[in-house]
Amino acid sequence: MSVALFVSTRQKLALNEALSAFAALIDANGATAILYSPRRFELATFANGTLQGWDGQPIEDIGSVFEARVFDDTAELRWLNDPSPEQCHRAVILTEQDRTGMLEGWEPEKDRPSVIETLSQTYLLWGEGTGRPLSNGWSELATARIGGLQVPVGNAGRNQRVLLHSVEYIVEAEHGNAVVFDERLVKLEVDRG
Predict the structure, then answer these.
(1) Are 45 and 56 within 8 A, CB to CB?
(2) Angle 117-123-126 from CA coordinates, rounded to 5°
(3) How many CA atoms lie within 13 A of 136 on its CB side?
(4) Can you tell me the distance from the alpha carbon of 71 to that of 92, in angstroms, rounded to the nearest whole number?
(5) Domain residue spans in the chain?
(6) What is the pLDDT along the chain (193 residues), one digit of tens a residue?
(7) Cβ contact 134:149 at 8 Å
(8) Kind and range of the H or E run holding 18
(9) Is 26 helix (H, G, I), strand (E, B) or coil?
(10) What would the DSSP string read from start to end of 134-170?
(11) Burial (0-12, 13-18, 19+ Cβ within 10 Å), 40
């Protein structure tokens, strides 16, 4: 299997700047974003350089986000806030296509082990579809424990589940062992099975 994982990093890059760089790499149809802050966890869509919530409104308050993962089926952006005075935020972009020439000022990671195989993974999001119709291709999941969670997946019917797909990259380790070296988020979809 001949799969390469290209990883580029950049330090001291604010989230909006990292999003701008990522926007140049992805399809115009956009991507899915997972945003973590001290007060909330939320999913968003990212298209045309803008994060949008389930109500179709731009997410303006990204100053409290301490971690973000933005992904589509071709690439993923990981961003981690550094609250220290130095503001050494860390941004990483992972993709299977060599797009390092499109990322001015980003450093390609060197000396990464060769990928010997990939493995598709699927995670189940917590909650079941409420059947409550939302606009803009969104659905609502809910459980008694966490309440409602809006997800950027359309047509999740009552009691249906939503899946998060990823790709794991396996490399050869010491003594001939194979280990998962990295993972890239790919997409969300309604579980039809």
Answers:
(1) no
(2) 170
(3) 15
(4) 12
(5) 6-108, 115-190
(6) 568 999 999 999 999 999 999 999 998 788 999 999 998 899 999 998 899 999 999 998 899 999 999 999 999 999 999 988 998 999 999 999 998 888 999 999 988 889 999 999 999 999 999 998 788 899 999 998 888 999 999 989 999 999 999 999 999 999 989 999 999 999 999 998 7
(7) no
(8) helix 15-23
(9) coil
(10) -STT-EEEEETTTEEEEES-S---TT--EEEEEEEEE
(11) exposed
User: What is residue 20's three-state secondary structure?
Assistant: helix
The Cα-based distances of 119 to 115, 159, 168, 188 in angstroms read 11, 28, 5, 17
Name the one residue in this structure whose structure tokens are 């999740």: 156
Q: How far apart are CA 153 and CA 156, in angstroms?
A: 7
* pTM, rounded to two decimals: 0.93
Cβ neighbours, 10 Å, residue 102: 14
Where does residue 175 rank: exposed (0-12), middle (13-18), buried (19+ CB within 10 A)? exposed
